[in-house]
Amino acid sequence: MKFLSEFRDPALIRSLLLEVNSKVTRAWKIMEVCGGQTHSIIKSGIDKLLDPRIELLHGPGCPVCVTPLQDIEVAFKLAQSKEIIFCSYGDMLRVPGKSENLLMLKSKGAKVELVYSPLDALTLAQNHPNQEVVFWSVGFETTAPATALAVLRARERGLNNFSVLVSHVQVPPAMELLVADPASQISAFLAAGHVCTITGDVEYRAFVEKHKIPVVITGFEPTDILQGILSAVECLESSKPQMINQYTRVAHSGGNKFAQVAVGSVFEVSHQYWRGIGMISDSGLKLRKDFSDFCAQKKFAHFENKNTKEACSELCQSGLLMQGKIKPPQCPEFGKTCTPESPLGAPMVSTEGACSAYFQNRRLIQEEVLNYV
Amino acid sequence: MCLGIPAEVLNVFSEGDVRWGNVSFSGLRKNIDLSFVPDVQIGDFVLCHVGIAISVIDQAEAHRTLETLKALGELDPQTEGEVGE
Amino acid sequence: MFECPFPIQRYPHITMAHGGGGALSHELIEKLIKPILSRELESSLDSVDLRFDTSMVPVMTTDSFVVQPLFFPDCDIGRLAVIGATNDLLMRGASPKFLSCSLILEEGFEISALQNILLSLRQTANQVHAKIVCGDTKVVERGKGDGLFINITAIGERMPSVMWHPSKIKVGDSIFVSGDLGRHAVSVMIARGKIPFASTIKSDCESFLEVIQASIQSEIRVRFMKDLTRGGLASNLIESMSATALSAEIWETAVPVEEEVLAFAEVLGLDPLHFACEGRFVLFADPADDQRTLKLLKQFHPQASKVGIVEASSLPGVNTAPLWLKNSLGMRRMLDPYRGELLPRIC
């Protein structure tokens, strides 16, 4: 596939590995923020091919994984309503709530539709004027523009049967939280290339200026990730923290202005609870008052259960995991009580979850070898 | 959720208020919303994410990046010796 | 050009009466089903005598087909049913001989569609030299049947000397695939219309008859073969290996997959190693026969490839030996069987 396969060329990957490894003189901990990058790293195995002094930490780059339990329970209640067609990305279908998931509800008769885009949910609403259609909008800054577009179009077309349940998070506040932890050992960040494609790099420049920690805007293919790591190592070894863009073919300094305008007109910043981590100020998005007609939570306020206790399974270590403090195989439940079929938390079922990355790519390494019975 | 795949724009058309691109992922075709890339042309490659194009791929930058990476391989000390001989 | 004696103008759709056993049932069988499938079908008997070559081993299989949609690029449920069932026989080295055909029709199903499916079914049976010798027809109420379900029971014969079985697999054996993978799953999924992509990909549905006959004649030391249907290469290999105490390593770069199938997998975040085929098989053979095996397979599909090797289990003392996938960097990861529900009703 053009502009994809070339960046997976094993010869180029090997050259980059040699180059990175030749530059390392000390131990560094580099955190990639995006779950898509985590999957790429574990699938290719480059974490095992790097100089062992480079440790890759996996950050909170999985919006599905950090969606609060309260939002999930609201989603489930909406999905079970006979008047609602509940639309969701495939990723959310198996995320466990307190005891069920959307797929189970679907098998019991709930009208749950898998969609690939919020625009598909909008089309569904237009084609079913007598049904309420709710779209569950989960994601980082990359995904918010599509939802903003859907809401703007719904308004232009005068639709009154379309609404969105918003569970959006933003990356820079999470990075701030991580480095504010006195125990943080993060030397550098690989920023999510597609998030920056939308937002541009201004917040990351400010971050580097403030914290003197290198940030490299990085893509998703193995060569992209290694280029990101190489830049990070060069900054660290020379003690010159910078913000560098290593995903120039896609992400530009100013980001995508059209997408930013759409997001800015529909959403405003809000405080957001991150499952397993806690409340992070100004780290989420919610619909502006002007668009409250399209807010599913307001429209169906009678479904909200304010008494939901915010908790994952007590055994799920997603909080520590997403702050880069442990890796999946270090969780005692990994692969034993927690598998994709019976997940204790979202990281095991999300396509961006670190646990699913490690589980799908189990390797012949002692701590990752599972006991089959 | 960050899954973004490059696709070639084969055709651009409008339907009402929406500008669409018929794009190809190595032959697999889909209609993608082009609202956020108004300057895109047929033959460009766009990065597609949840049904919309979020960026036009800078092909010159892509080639430049690949050339830089290939050059790294040429500087690989394991091959330098062979070249010197 | 086949002229159907069924009074299609009077009954363009299946009614409950067509399954009731009375006059309309009789008309459906005598004027539509029998003329297409086999004039020798005895509608007055519920069973048929079979004659076998006593020097051969009779082999039997049964398969039900619930594919949606019923028609997809280059194939339909009728053709799929015969190919699917008879390929199961051929994987044992057995030549297909007799078929039964049971139809479960939904009230309201179009007779013209049924006619086309039955014609395709008969044509395919002819191609694999199998006779349809008995059958059954039932009708269920509208909303209870999704158009048409087909069950085929197939009986064939194999030579006693052809003993392809997982117990024959040894450490060091070579693993081949007979052609490129995954086109059937992709073509069906796109034809279903719920995934908003367009493609020219056609199903890979085809009979193994010729390649199996050639394999038997070739004296290649085949250990075992398995067709790569539901669950794709990964699931079927895991199933094959689970009958042994051995492990296998597959080389990612050696597995042949068309660009468009790879793109489909990429865009949807799926693994092409889980994509069902309906005309591809995996073959375990003696490595000393590698050149001959590859030459034979490539006669039928240029993309046939050696994709891996059988090895001793990497996890001694563990019941289920893993299947490893080695990537282009030489890193190995365990493959899992397909566990999802995103690709339902593929066959």
Query: Separation of termini of chain A?
Result: 40 Å
CATH topology of the largest domain in chain A: Rossmann fold
Largest interface: A-B, 55 and 37 residues
Instruction: List the uncertain runs of chain B.
Output: 79-85
Structural class of chain A: alpha/beta
User: What about the largest sheet of chain A?
Assistant: 6 strands, mixed
Quick overview of this protein structure:
The complex is a heterotrimer of chains A (373), B (85) and C (347). Chain A has 373 residues and is of the alpha/beta class.
Question: What are the key terms here?
Answer:
heterotrimer, A: 373 residues, alpha/beta, Rossmann fold, 2 domains, 5-stranded parallel β-sheet, 38% helix, globular, disordered C terminus, B: 85 residues, SH3 type barrels, 5-stranded antiparallel β-sheet, 2 helices, 28% helix, 41% strand
How is the topology of this model organized?
The complex is a heterotrimer of chains A (373), B (85) and C (347).
Chain A lengths: L9 H14 L4 E5 L2 H10 L1 H4 L4 E5 L4 H4 L2 H11 L4 E5 L13 H6 L4 E3 L3 H10 L4 E8 L4 H13 L5 E8 L1 H10 L7 E5 H7 L2 H10 L3 E4 L3 H16 L5 E3 L11 H10 E8 L3 E10 L8 H4 L18 H5 L31 H7 L13
Parallel strand pairs in A: 1-2, 1-7, 3-4, 3-5, 5-6, 7-8, 8-9
Antiparallel strand pairs in A: 6-11, 10-11
Helix pairs in contact in A: 1-12, 2-16, 7-8, 8-13
Chain B lengths: L4 E11 L2 E8 L2 E6 L11 E5 L2 E5 L2 H16 L2 H8 L1
Antiparallel strand pairs in B: 1-2, 1-4, 2-3, 4-5
Chain C lengths: L22 H15 L19 E9 L5 E2 L2 E2 H14 L4 E12 L4 H17 L3 E10 L7 E11 L15 E4 L5 H10 L16 H10 L3 E6 L4 H11 L3 E6 L7 H10 L12 E5 L4 H11 L4 E8 L10 E4 L5 E4 L12
Parallel strand pairs in C: 4-5, 9-12
Antiparallel strand pairs in C: 1-6, 2-3, 4-6, 7-10, 7-11, 8-10, 9-11, 12-13
